[in-house]
Amino acid sequence: MVGIFGCVLKDGKAAPVIYEALKRLEHRGYDSVGTATIHEGVVHFGKDQGRIDDVYARYALDALPGRIGLGHLRWATHGAPIQSNAHPHLDCNGKVAVAQNGIIENYAEIRKELEDAGHVFKSKTDTEVVPHLLEAKLKKGLRFEDALRETLKRLEGSFSLAVMSVEDPGRLFFAQKENTLTIGVDDDAMYCSSDIPTFLPMTNRIVPVESGEAAILEAEQFEIRKFADWSVVSRKPKEVDWVPEIAEKEGYPHFMLKEIHAQPYTLRSTIRLQEEYLDLMTTFLDRAKELFLVACGTSYHACLAASYMFSKMASLSTHPVYASEFIEQIGKSVNIDSTILALSQSGETADTLAAVDYARVHAATILGLTNVVGSTLTRVSRAYIVQQAGPEIGVAATKTFTAQLSVLAQLALKLAEKRGKLSHVEMEHFKEKLKQIPQIAERVIKTEESIVHSIAKKYKDKPYFIFLGRGISSAVAYEGRLKLMETNYIPSMASPAAEMEPGVINLMKPGSPVFFICPRDETRRNIIEDIKKAKAEGASIISVIEEGDEEIKALSDDYIQVVKDMPEYLCPIELVIPLQLFAYYTAVERGLDPDKPRHLTKAVTVK
Ligand code: F6R
């Protein structure tokens, strides 16, 4: 993951153009770099772990010959950030080069089949199956374009691919499924990339490549075809007037909003975790004599939600603990029987690593959930899962939070299956609902964004906010409050709704905004009573409800609706999105920059 870019020039050398393109993505973070070109029937390439400038210098990549080429920045998802795992990947004969963004879900089965047929793999990546599959098809005598067509039929997952071969040396091929790709059309060159900013200084004429489509580039023309029947799609270039800064945000004014909108896409990646990782992790969870869920900030709220998921789905009791309190609170009791599941988006938060370090020294088993392969957390964990959300630039965690929730939900489901806690029918129902979560996130954003924006306008000048929920939704309430406080600096409170007395209720005055998070779960009757109490104090009730919950609607001054009938263990994902949007729009309406909250950095690496 991170970015792919390719170009076919009429004249000149592709490698320096690729260098400039990759540099435009550099600030996002990546672990490895690679570039390949074709010249006189040979694939030339260089790749390694490290910075773009260093890798280009180390392998003299600027000097690669050829007017056609591709480049890749990697953010590891399968396989450690080492040279052999960097892209591009080649077939056994070095005739096909491939770079990929995303996940090829069924790579393990394809790899086994190819290895049995004698193909030799050099990496641990999912991507490497693609050049070998192409090689196998070429061996059968197919033309390169037909080999690609056949190969695409085999691939499952969410990916974008850049492919080239000496068998078809004048053309560059791309394809995407549930991912992003855009062609850039210039007078004497064609570009294609996962990210428009890579080619924006050269051209502003763009053609989007949709899911299930392949793009074939030559220097002066392009063609788009559908995987399904290889029919040609006619699509004309359109001009965008984005300055580079806006292009980087894909037209969104802020990274925070871009990342909120990216959630359907990141959730699509996250729900495709390989069975073997879930299996290994749940084996440890199943055997744990005592399990502590340890994290800071937003990641801690994911722990809180997870404690409900594990207990309700799999009858596993856990202890969510703030990493900063772990040593004081639990330290003395940690021993060989303790298991720590540490959550950290960055994998580098100092308090989380200190807690983990302490627990390791006391012989505990360390498990990790992070967004960054190669981070310290992955190095110190006995087993870990990478949440597949891609880099997050906005300081306020949004897409990485819902990705964490989705991984935890999958772990709870897997554990429930292992422990025989759910019937076959229930399992199938939950799995089906999990598959729907990306579309559900999409729908909530689509239908509720403008409503949330007007609610933000209405309440933006209020001096304080209160967030209440019951059960697993109390974790959502805490996260809604954190998002608002960190981006808006408005004093806010959150608590389980039943705890509003004594204390919180005394702060409710006529017009005080109080968010109630109200899915239709077992807590609903009680939360209705809580709402009535807040209403009696004159508070303005803003509820997050399931579609069609007329009873709560009638009690609310404003309401935001999420999709109904989601199982409790998945509900936090859709319930938190309106609260992320609320924090975002409140900041915008107050003239604050939500991407640059005061006193905050993305990862707190010092204690
Ligand atoms: C909130 C936020 C922080 C982090 C916290 C932990 O939006 O970004 O509260 O959640 O610093 O960071 P990680 O998950 O990287 O350990």
Task: Give an overview in words.
The protein is α/β, with parallel strands linked by helices and 607 residues long. It is globular. The strands form 4 sheets. An 8-stranded antiparallel sheet has the order 3-2-4-1-10-9-11-15, covered by helices on one side. It contains 19 helices and 25 strands. Bound molecules: fructose -6-phosphate (F6R). Residues 296-299, 344-346, 349, 352, 396-397, 482, 486, 603-604 line the site of fructose -6-phosphate.
Quick gist of this model?
With 607 residues, this protein is α/β, with parallel strands linked by helices. It has 19 helices and 25 strands. Helix 13 links the parallel strand 19 and strand 20.
Unique ligands? fructose -6-phosphate
Strand adjacency order, main sheet:
3-2-4-1-10-9-11-15
- First-last Cα distance: 30 Å
The dominant shape is: globular
Strand content: 15-25%
For this entry, give a set of tags.
alpha/beta, seven-stranded antiparallel sheet, globular
Per-chain topology:
Layout: E1 2-9, H1 14-23, E2 32-39, E3 42-49, H2 52-58, E4 68-74, E5 89-90, E6 96-104, H3 107-116, H4 129-139, H5 144-154, E7 157-165, E8 172-177, E9 181-185, E10 189-193, E11 205-209, E12 213-217, E13 222-226, E14 232-233, E15 238-239, H6 244-248, H7 255-261, H8 263-270, H9 275-287, E16 290-295, H10 297-314, E17 319-322, H11 323-330, E18 338-344, H12 350-361, E19 365-370, H13 376-380, E20 383-386, H14 399-418, H15 424-459, E21 465-469, H16 473-488, E22 492-496, E23 513-518, H17 524-536, E24 540-546, H18 550-555, E25 558-562, H19 571-589
Helix pairs in contact: 3-4, 4-5, 8-14, 8-15, 9-14, 10-14, 10-16, 11-12, 14-15, 14-19, 15-19, 16-19
Bound molecules: fructose -6-phosphate.
